[in-house]
Known about the structure:
By secondary structure, chain A is an alpha+beta fold. The first copy, chain A, is 31% helix and 24% strand. Chain A folds into two domains: 21-307, Beta-galactosidase, Chain A, domain 5, CATH 2.70.98; 319-701, Glycosyltransferase (Alpha/alpha barrel).
Amino acid sequence: MERTSVTETGFGYECSPWELRWRGLDVDALQRTESAFALSNGHIGMRGTLEESEPRGLPGTYLNGFYEQHELPYAEGGYGYPEEGQTVVNVTDGKVLRLLVEDEPLDMRYGVATAHDRVLDFRSGTLRRVTEWSSPTGRRVRVTTERLVSFTQRAVAAIRYDVEPLDEDLQLVVQSDLLANEPIESDTRDPRVAAALDSPLVPQFCQAADYQAVLVHETRASGLRVAAAMDHKIEVDNGLRTRIHAEGDLARLTAAVDVRKGGRLRITKFLAYGWSAQRSVPALRAQVEAALAGGRQTGWKGLIAEQRQFLDDFWATSDIEIDGDPELQQAVRFALFHLLQAGARGETRAIAGKGLTGPGYDGHAFWDSETFVLPVLTYTMPDAARDALRWRHSTMDKARARAAQLGLRGAAFPWRSINGAECSAYWPAGTAAFHVSADIADAVLRYMYATGDIEFERDCGTELLLETARLWASLGHFDHHGHFRIDGVTGPDEYSAVADNNIYTNLMARRNLSAAADSCRRHPDIAARFGVDTVELDTWRSAADMMALPYDQELGVHPQSEGFLQHDEWDFAGTEEEFYPLLLNYPYFDLYRKQVVKQADLVLALHLCGDSFSPEEKARDFAYYEARTVRDSSLSAGTQAVIAAEVGHLQLAYDYLAEAALTDLHDVHNNVRNGLHMASLAGAWQGTVAGFGGLRDHGGQLSFAPRLPGALRRLTFRLTFRGTRFQVSIRHTHATYQVLDGPTLDLIHHGERFTVTAEPQQLPIPVLNAGPPPSQPAGRAPARRDASKVRPFINGG
Amino acid sequence: MERTSVTETGFGYECSPWELRWRGLDVDALQRTESAFALSNGHIGMRGTLEESEPRGLPGTYLNGFYEQHELPYAEGGYGYPEEGQTVVNVTDGKVLRLLVEDEPLDMRYGVATAHDRVLDFRSGTLRRVTEWSSPTGRRVRVTTERLVSFTQRAVAAIRYDVEPLDEDLQLVVQSDLLANEPIESDTRDPRVAAALDSPLVPQFCQAADYQAVLVHETRASGLRVAAAMDHKIEVDNGLRTRIHAEGDLARLTAAVDVRKGGRLRITKFLAYGWSAQRSVPALRAQVEAALAGGRQTGWKGLIAEQRQFLDDFWATSDIEIDGDPELQQAVRFALFHLLQAGARGETRAIAGKGLTGPGYDGHAFWDSETFVLPVLTYTMPDAARDALRWRHSTMDKARARAAQLGLRGAAFPWRSINGAECSAYWPAGTAAFHVSADIADAVLRYMYATGDIEFERDCGTELLLETARLWASLGHFDHHGHFRIDGVTGPDEYSAVADNNIYTNLMARRNLSAAADSCRRHPDIAARFGVDTVELDTWRSAADMMALPYDQELGVHPQSEGFLQHDEWDFAGTEEEFYPLLLNYPYFDLYRKQVVKQADLVLALHLCGDSFSPEEKARDFAYYEARTVRDSSLSAGTQAVIAAEVGHLQLAYDYLAEAALTDLHDVHNNVRNGLHMASLAGAWQGTVAGFGGLRDHGGQLSFAPRLPGALRRLTFRLTFRGTRFQVSIRHTHATYQVLDGPTLDLIHHGERFTVTAEPQQLPIPVLNAGPPPSQPAGRAPARRDASKVRPFINGG
């Protein structure tokens, strides 16, 4: 039994390799656990609220791409400022199953919960819950539930709800709802956004019959239509009475029955969701009723079995095993599970910064998706990576229009968006962060290298590459000395903005320009269709060849952007801990003009464009920026783990990896209530596979440079590349490579080329003496990871 | 008679040396003429609306410092963003005098106006009007009005209103109003601002008796209280019946009388205004009734006589005579008259960007005041300059608090404000434009040099200098090489922002630091009171000595800011005329990253800090920036005139001077309807006195380098300096200097020191061969000024 290996961590969750469990009820912790216990398949997302609906943190049912829009206010407007914002909408809630025990509602704030146990199972892909509850008048029941959002039937979710009287015969009434326009609390201070999200759904249709009901709504401003349907299977001995009813915002099945002690009321609730910007009410109703019929046809057991099979396949391709740190083991699987949930069935919709786990960041997708999440999916679930890139491609017209509005050529992808239109209201950290377009190109290139998917390249890849290359060609210019400069843009670090020749941006643009030229050469017909001629190709190559890359000879380091190294140092010693994150306590102007780094920027270039730096440069640059990076962004720790490992500071890499992996489980940024941080979860994979595994994929050549920190005994991960599934298993002195499935592959291990086959190959790990680790700003060093000191603890008590 | 010299210009106004006249009614032009015909004394401002109130452009009665506040909305907020905006309020309108002729209201949109003539008289300081009107049923009357806002009694305005039947006996009814909360059209798109300005005044008190009435109101949010009172003297043969009435937003005196042909109804309306953030309703009522009593005691003739005397004194000290360009002569006097109106009785209130002539810029004051307007006042009405600086000093606590909020020391004065609190909602072009604090210091220094006003220095000057010096000391830092850098700030040019080492800013900061150190040395007791010790003084001097001033050896020019010269060139050839002003058609990011200059920045440094550049550097820098400056700001032409003249391009200087001087009369920026551009009006003086006169005051030494463009025969201007009033008269070959009043002065003429006395001294003007003039961006050269080609034209017909 797994349960025998359970230990408790200091943050309420029990430590276990394949599940996440929280024992007991902690109302104050509900909102953050709802995020961690969220279920999603990338199309539907349901937060882990209790079936009874209350007590609750923040209810949330989301459909990928479904949003309301609202005016963006500006006290001082400007040309090209986006006028409309988009915010993810809490759609019709189908999770609700209310229980009355002899007319007393099961509400865990009243009576006594003698047991209450929730567990997210990474292998079954379900959220289970067992509650034993004694009502204020002493009636005792056991409620056992399990729910899933199906990976195999993307429009379908299902809940099994069992109630057992524990001491006596009891009259039970269950109300199973579809509930639209739930009142929710909003963090927004903007009255226009609040107004847009107050009862955002206008009822258009409702119908109920037998055990089945459907509600159709439309948003006021964005004009999107959503249909939700439910059906039920009810298993009980006898005496069941039911009633079904539907009105504008509510459909309700009421089931009443007397259940004997030892008996059980079992309700299986099937849910289906669909939305469209175009389909009519009848068409959308038909769509969800058909999905519902499919789900019912498969049945609960069938859905459970499909879910398990899907996850078995996933883990076979992507699992990471860590010996020596059980909490990290759990966190890494938690991360992979949620990344899978975010991306599995997105199917040409975005992967939002929070996935579908909460309303944070308004449900927007950012560059995080391509830079942090897609590499994970590319090497574990390449079809999901492809679908996410197809989403970007589907927004190409908006990106072209945005570029034209900005006076540029090609495509300028948005900094933040749900539907592909720019929603960033602060241009220095939004529009000016043009690197998002190169990040997309890089993800395209990585995906194409990893899969050789010519069909994708012809359908989407070449176009994405060439239109982003056009952006760079029009955004930069050749100076008097022939260097290609990209001025006035913002790199990944949000504590600097609108600077010249950001090295990360320039290196990524260089790769983008070269890759576009290569792809156009491979597909001259596509190039011709988009009007790319040899003059344009030559310009791209010249710009790439002559890309400006500032370097400070005196200091021997690369400036993040031109002039950065001449800026004043931040007074870290004088900055108390409560003043972090700095952006809440210091003005942008002060942050922008000093050498303080929110998140890896030049260090991210050391990772993604590592082929442009010598090992000595990497060591010097890393040390320089370590002393100035405060990690006020959850995007940073994973990248710092990767480069710390590369330059040989393995304990530091381990510290950063743990921070990235535990960001959400430990609520490091105190905002998990609004959803999980997908990029940070991806950082757990990056820190493991690119960090201790040393995975790099420059130019499509996979290479590894594995090294383990002292605390870990063994690290094993699985990847898929060009149809080959293989495994890398790392110990302190050697690494073992083995193909699990598919043809052999040429790889590089610590600089030496070799061929990995079905026969395990053991290769030695060379010794690296990195010297003393670099220092961090006062108080901003990551927590020293020591797995042996994780305190046994239950539910934060 | 002046009228014999009248010619008509192409813009509706008749050309005349001492007045501005518009003949006939042009409803479409009403709004802009209301700005030009505005009367003000710096305390009260009244737009030039017709007494009948309609037709109208935009009614407006303003009290300096009286505003409503409203929340500033941000789609994405940030630390240190101002939360409250301020907007000037149209207060109770006392200009209204409605006439009924045999029950037909005089409304010039109906019936026929056989004559209609308005004239702003620069010597009487009144706005006169004669209208002959035939009602739709053929009754004819002549209405003659004259109004003034008293320079001598700052709370008082008065209107004389005469009506004469022209053909027959007529029954006349006049309604004289105090009218609060007039409905006005607003340009704002922000519903919160619009809501704040919709009926902003809450009635608190009203009273009427005999011919006198008073209304007291309070603003909703800012909590300011305003009182307006009126009294009347009515002169008519007999049969007069009157009624007076007051309610919340209206007080009305109704006068009805039968007037015989050849007779006349004369109403003299006295108005008084007062406002306070603290005084009670009875106190404020008493204040305006007392002011009214004073005005009545002086009487109409007395007010007219005082006004004339005040203006005679003003012109004696400040007049500019231009021979050879009558339109420019008129424009320069118009400019001086409005600058006087804006500043004469401000008395520790701000001089707003639009003065009190319209609601533009929300009624805010900017750096324009200190940099452009105060130099004019310093040398013509030094007490007004002092009072404006006392306003800045009165906001010192807010400026210190703002600096502290931004993590800086000393005082950070606001980019835009009415009450001294920062109201700029876009920090890259607001908060980051720290130069405003050095501009204030420079104005303090100039005023002290020009007056030797030790009392001011001890009360305000030293404190202003030392607190702004502290700002610079904390804003900049010494780099590895010991240079003092000021990074991440915005200079005058709003088409660049947040750059390092803006030369204008650094030079002005250098002067500020040195001047503060000097003043602290002169007043060690004040220095001690503010805790300035020798260490701090040494830091200021070191920072000043080691100020970073980038220079490009290769190009031989100064970069406006570091990196500017490496930026891409703007595609001027590809920018059609309708795309100007660029900020309405291109995003900030694009403007900021290219070599395109909205307004003089480095060129303003060449003027104000001309002692830091060699003549050759000035010539090269001017030529370089001329080719890149588009003058999308009304602040620019005056400065370009000054430097064009200095480097010897006299026709170009003349072109720029004309543009600056005629900005409002020709409505160059198509926004005069919202108020006059005080800085551009000041630019007319700058272009004349600092341009063709070559006035400089570096270190308190006045110097001149006069030169006339070919078209002008003679230019004479008067200045006051350290109690001496003197005159400079320039011809092509020589200039004549003469003290009019006061002791002798040491001056410099073209580099040669001399002493000016009561005896006229004629000094020769050396020949300067400047070579060909520099070019401007395609389509952005100023109109070539040719006074002989000003077309005779009436009212735009």
